[in-house]
């Protein structure tokens, strides 16, 4: 996000007044206005509002005495967010110390905070039942949870057992705030369940696989979920029915679209993996094909027969990439949507698949043995798969996309996809020459593999030069994880520049942001 000019002006005025001279001989006053434990985008944060009469340093210590948060502030009212742990992790219970020091290092304020152990209770469980071929399948859980503890809790996994059958599923990302109740949703698939009463056992785990709640109930399967139905012609008439898992669709349709061209990130998202496995299983049950090419062409025929629709017919430049679950529910989409659905399904089947970005188009690339089809490799070692034209088999390429060289390949394999954004960027300056921008950056790995030893760089750029570059090394970031990074960059004087931040992975720039306004 760009630097907020209003904030800059306010900070400058505050800093100038703090160096007026007379306040240096007075005792620095500090008053706490409010302190709230909250969730901030998946991070447990202590939201602190306070007023100080002069320069102060605020520190937060964890139960082991380690510093969790440290920052300097100047005269005025401030709002700070002190993060207590990593992404989607509940901090340990115990005593936390909030302390404030004046510019001479004297302690002028202290507040002890005691947080109780995690205490999560399952209030109610509602199962999602799908009736297929006169047999019931469990396809989801809607669980009401109550958090009696003092810190937010992040349920991640549900281990489920019914009729001596076991399965596990991921909850769509949810936080249960202290002393609040909330519904959480999980896709889990167990088929061929008796219509009689059965014992359902559920254990909830966090992302460190610690059990945070469990329950057991006698359940009576009863169909309470609708179906998605498809029919198309390919080597006969095919009819496919899938459970309409609305909470998955609601989750994906509520997500902001990603500001990147690597659409593989839409395929990598983990929360629909089990559902896509079910889609593939149900689809392949309709064909007798045993060879790779036959299976691929059958899957392609299903996707090719879904309606083609532009994101916005009145605006050809509009892009709304659909996650695979959205594409299935909407039953329509453009070339990117169809290609991503195909890539997700073929990846679930175990194939080496990529998205192929072609000028004004997207298709799928498949790596198979060179003599797998009557066609040659299209690009590199990938056969071309068209997903927007009916009955186009693997390897057949539309004339307008032949002999192109400006093609970008996005593998659907084990790799990271790193992006970052600015939570805030504040400029601090004063009459004695202090002039810098303090950045709080959130880095996210949208891929399906950990990223290791990458750098976050920040610097000011003129037309020809780079000034005051600062960097921080990130040892690792797991797939689907986020990290908050602080960076301070001095503002160069006497030359017009813009502020940029970059992610460098394996000596390549993989993501970049820049300020809308120029400096100084």
Note the topology.
Elements (H helix, E strand, L loop, with lengths): L4 H14 L11 E11 L2 E10 L3 E6 L5 E7 L2 E8 L10 E9 L4 E9 L4 E13 L2 E13 L9 E6 L2 E6 L10 E6 L3 E4 L4 E8 L5 E9 L7 E7 L3 E7 L2 H9 L9 H5 L4 H12 L7 H13 L2 E2 L15 H7 L1 E2 L1 H14 L3 E7 L2 E7 L15 E3 L22 E5 L5 E12 L5 E11 L5 E11 L4 E12 L4 E9 L7 E8 L2 E7 L6
Parallel strand pairs: 18-19
Antiparallel strand pairs: 1-2, 2-5, 3-4, 3-6, 6-7, 8-9, 9-12, 9-13, 10-11, 10-14, 14-15, 16-17, 20-21, 20-23, 21-22, 24-25, 25-28, 26-27, 26-29, 29-30
Helix pairs in contact: 4-7, 5-7, 6-7
Mean pLDDT: 92
Q: Class by helix and strand content? A: mainly beta
Strand order of the largest sheet: 4-3-6-7
- Number of beta strands: 30
What's the architecture of the largest domain, going by CATH?
Answer: Roll
Give the domain tally.
4
- Round the Cα radius of gyration to an integer and report it: 27 Å
Number of helices: 7
Question: What is the terminal-to-terminal distance?
Answer: 17 Å
What is the CATH C level class of the largest domain, in words? Answer: Alpha Beta
Query: How much helicity do the residues have?
Result: 10-25%
CATH topology of the largest domain: C8orf32 fold
- Beta content comes to over 45%
Main sheet makeup? 4 strands, antiparallel
Uncertain ranges: 1-24
- Given the C-alpha coordinates, what overall shape results? flat
Short description:
The protein has 520 residues and is mainly β. It is 14% helix and 45% strand. The protein folds into four domains: 1-115, Immunoglobulin-like; 120-219, Immunoglobulin-like (Sandwich); 227-412, C8orf32 fold, CATH 3.10.620; 415-520, Immunoglobulins (Immunoglobulin-like), CATH 2.60.40.
């Amino acid at each position: 996000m760009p630097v907020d000019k209003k904030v800059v002006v306010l900070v400058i005025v505050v800093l100038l007044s703090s160096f007026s001279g007379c306040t240096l001989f007075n005792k620095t006053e500090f008053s706490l206005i409010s302190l709230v434990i909250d969730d901030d985008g998946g991070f447990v944060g202590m939201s602190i509002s306070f007023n100080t009469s002069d320069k102060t340093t605020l520190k937060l210590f964890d139960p082991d005495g380690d510093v969790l948060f440290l920052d300097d502030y100047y005269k005025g009212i401030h709002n700070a967010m002190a993060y207590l742990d990593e992404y989607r992790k509940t901090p340990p219970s115990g005593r936390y110390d909030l302390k404030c020091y004046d510019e001479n290092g004297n302690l002028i304020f202290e507040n002890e905070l005691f947080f109780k152990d995690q205490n999560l209770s399952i209030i109610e469980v509602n199962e999602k039942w799908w009736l297929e071929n006169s047999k019931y399948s469990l396809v989801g859980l809607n669980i009401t949870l109550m958090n009696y503890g003092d810190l937010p809790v992040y349920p991640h996994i549900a281990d489920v057992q019914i009729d001596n059958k076991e399965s596990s599923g991921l909850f769509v990302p949810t936080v249960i705030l202290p002393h609040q109740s909330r519904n959480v949703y999980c896709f889990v698939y167990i088929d061929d369940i008796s219509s009689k009463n059965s014992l359902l056992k559920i254990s909830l785990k966090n992302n460190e696989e610690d059990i945070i709640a469990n329950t057991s109930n006698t359940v009576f399967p009863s169909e309470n979920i609708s179906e998605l139905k498809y029919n198309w012609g390919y080597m006969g008439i095919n009819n496919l029915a899938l459970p309409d898992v609305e909470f998955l669709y609601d989750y994906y349709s509520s997500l902001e679209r990603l500001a990147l061209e690597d659409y593989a990130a839409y395929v990598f998202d983990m929360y629909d993996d089990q559902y896509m496995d079910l889609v593939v299983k149900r689809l392949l049950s309709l064909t007798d094909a045993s060879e790779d090419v036959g299976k691929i062409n059958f899957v392609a025929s299903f996707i090719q027969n879904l309606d083609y629709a532009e994101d916005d017919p009145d605006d050809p430049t509009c892009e709304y990439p659909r996650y695979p679950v959205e594409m299935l529910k909407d039953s329509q989409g453009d070339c990117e949507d169809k290609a991503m659905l195909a890539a997700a399904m073929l990846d679930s089947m175990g194939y080496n698949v990529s998205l192929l970005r072609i000028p004004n188009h997207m298709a799928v690339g498949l790596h198979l043995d060179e003599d797998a089809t009557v066609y040659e490799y299209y690009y590199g070692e990938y056969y071309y798969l068209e997903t927007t034209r009916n009955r186009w088999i693997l390897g057949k390429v539309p004339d307008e996309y032949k002999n192109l060289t400006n093609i970008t390949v996005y593998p659907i394999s084990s790799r990271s996809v790193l992006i970052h954004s600015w939570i805030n960027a504040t400029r601090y300056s004063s009459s004695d020459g202090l002039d810098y921008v303090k950045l709080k950056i959130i880095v996210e790995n949208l891929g399906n593999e950990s990223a290791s030893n990458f750098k976050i760089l920040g610097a000011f750029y003129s037309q020809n030069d780079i000034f005051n570059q600062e960097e921080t090394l990130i040892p690792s970031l797991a797939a689907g994880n986020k990290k908050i990074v602080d960076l301070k960059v001095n503002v160069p004087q006497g030359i017009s520049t813009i502020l940029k931040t970059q992610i460098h992975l394996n000596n390549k720039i993989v993501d970049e942001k820049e300020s809308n306004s120029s400096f100084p």
